[in-house]
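Preliminary data (for renewal application), zinc ion complex.
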Amino acid sequence: MSFDLLRYTGHVFVDAGIAVVETQIGKPCTEIDSGSLRLLEEWLLEQYANPPMRAYLSIHFPNSPWCNFNPKIPAERRRANQLTLLRAYEAPLLEPAAACPFCGRTAQFLADKQHIPLLSSAACLVTAPYGRVGTPVCGYCLLAIQFYPLGTIKATGKPLIWWTPNQKLLQRLTSIHFKKLQRIIALRGEKVQSLDWPRSRLLESAKLVVDTIDDKREFCDCIGYHFTNYGSGPDFKQYFLPHQLLDFWWDVKMSSATVREVHAGIEREAWATPKQKKRPLEEDELESMSLRNRYYEFLSEAFMSPDWERRAKLVVRKFFLQTKNISRNSFDLAELFLRRVSGMEKYRLEVIRKAADSIADLVLDHGEKRWLTNLYMKELRSRELMNYLLRCQRRLCDAKRPLEWENVLQLLDVSSADENPLGDWWLVRDLLLMRILERVGQTNAPLVRELEVMEKEEVE
Ligand SMILES: [Zn+2]
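Predicted structure:
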């Protein structure tokens, strides 16, 4: 049997509230009947009576019956005000009738910013003929919204929440925040601890979903909302997470053990190191929940840009190309990323791989390590890269295994060797170097050690 009391609406606060309800009750919202609503109501009242949660609610619903603890208001009246919010679906329809902006049902309640975040205050009139105070909403959407704070974590003092059009995915992402918030309250006791680095918090939860899910069909674009209307005005930020990143992480999960290990190593290295000092274990756990991950921060920053596909290519230079841990280079990993996230053509990547393999053969079969060190030791300019490839080609012609020169020009996006490469030629250099290092790393350990020493001296 299916019910239509609580429903997803496409609006962040209603949807997040329903995702919390589904997490708590362990079944989809279409199975929630009026009896379940009463049980959920009891559970919510219990959660919000907890002192740390009560204090946290003031940045969600300022001055609402959840956090207005004026001692002059008797406890019974406070409870009655809370139940008015939770049972507005039993209230008469508003006169004159108005549609709920979230679901379209007839409204039963006039809400303001103490009931729904980012609305205006109760004193603001809607400027229209017969204007009235507040936003008309139906009782079910109002009820759903009262649950949403349990699907947030507090990051840099403000709630951080997920929204995505896929309901299953939203429920999975919200349940991670739900569990984390419960854990923080259990560890800290007196208050809801604020975590740092909201972008790292969002991407780590998205990664956890990819790692635990069995089916990628749920993946779609996601948005992290970071906001509050506590204080003098609304404060709102949104972080975009394209489905292409989830697809890429899924591909990594399905890849060879080498690709998975290299990616896991890159992720691990990108975490900030916790401060080493003697303190209780719960402090350690709270700090580890708050750490920065440079890889996640960089990706999220790139996705803020309208041309994020181009900006995301820099991940290859900053994280995938490993000049210190040479055995941790994987062209396959970079290829997966560039195809999935940056939309790079397979053909072009194949040409780069073949060119790099031919050059690696000169290093490995003929002992000519200059072809590696010339790429490795300096940041080439675009013209220098062209000259390097011309020299490689001459040598490969001598060795009777030339590159297909037409392809080399294509990979640099030029029509002749006289033209200066523009665009992403730097990425071509990084990919050539990555592939050569990968090949050398597999077969010539002494040379790898020599390069690592050179890198160390360079740093010193
Ligand atoms: Zn509604």
